[in-house]
Amino acid sequence: MISDAKQILSAFTAKIPSSVFGPERVNYIADHIHELQVEQRIQILQLVNSILGTMIDRQASDVELGGHGAQNYVWYRIFGKKERVADIPQFTEDEASTLIMILLSKSQIDFLLQEKNLDFSYSFHFDKAQLAVRFRADAYFDLDSVALNMRSIQTRIRPIESLDFHPVAVKTMSHSYIKFGLSLITGITGSGKSTTLDAIIDFHNDADPCHIVIIASPIEYVHKSRKAIIKHREVGRDVNSFKEGVTQALRQDPDIIVIGEMRDSDTIMAALEVTDTGHKVFSTLHTSSAVESIDRIIAEVNPTEQERVRNRLADVLISVASQKLVPSLDGKRVLAKEVLIVTPSVRAAIKNNNTSEIYMMINQGGPQGMVTMEQDLLRLYAERKISKESAIAYANNKTRILQLIKG
Questions:
Q1: pTM as predicted
Q2: How far apart are CA 172 and CA 319, in angstroms?
Q3: For residue range 130-150, what is the model confidence (pLDDT) as tens digits?
Q4: Domains in the chain, start-ordered, CATH in brackets?
């Protein structure tokens, strides 16, 4: 099956005239990909599914293929380390571009060619596990050829108890306890933000008779309504933008609105406004600490709006959890996090533009459910889950972690 699909790709790309080069080769593939027969497309899709199935078997989080950088190899990220896969066929840049476009509709191909980037989701039935598996995908250009990253979406949601949040922190995130306000899950790419967000949604789905609207690009885990009714709106498919999704949600009688990512000032302003109307909002940011998250939100908006946004953020922000996945001693990865609970003192610091004071408030806020990244890394080191070197490497404040370890 794999060899047949590889032959189909090779034969198709061999037809590209030698006079066509650079980005025009991708355009040629896009213009002629419809010439592949249905049976040939199915065989190529089966090849993709085989690569993804192997990825799941090896517990890889991501797969990378296509583009100049891949050097014709398929690459997996396994427990944080990116590795080329020797026992999967190699694909030329043209073959990889063809394989990637097979996954896309004509409108998606047109969007990719115009915008040079496309976020989408992909799913198939994995026979070995007897379940449907989903992937978050990003197609993009790398030196005039198409490349693809696909990230595996967990087939099972981790219970929120397994994430080791303080009970007070869990309570502040609960719609049953606080009916409105903004809670942020932040971290760099690949830090497990989506896993935590899905755990929070599932926590409400088990206990809260509410309406949850999820706006994401793309939709990753698809929740089944239990105690709560959950609606999924994918940007680009069900709604045009995050901002429109948030604005439209107000007319859909939601209790909780989940915004996959606050990517720009428009989305940030919409999130603050919808929180102001008395809704509970969860969202993510690409930041590595709680203080940085606050500063980033304020810095993203127009300078003339920053004072107003600072005051509004202080009024609606409830909590910030900034997390990292740290290499563990067993060769896997473990979650480390910084948690800020917005107390009156924190609120005053935000309003007075004294965010530099917040770190010490987190440091001293253990009884209120707070923990600094350095305190949590020290806990993991003391529990012999991570090495001293990893604790230091992943700390935001190197001086502070060294003091804690010596102490």
A1: 0.80
A2: 7
A3: 778 889 999 999 999 999 999
A4: 2-153 (3.30.450.90), 160-406 (3.40.50.300)
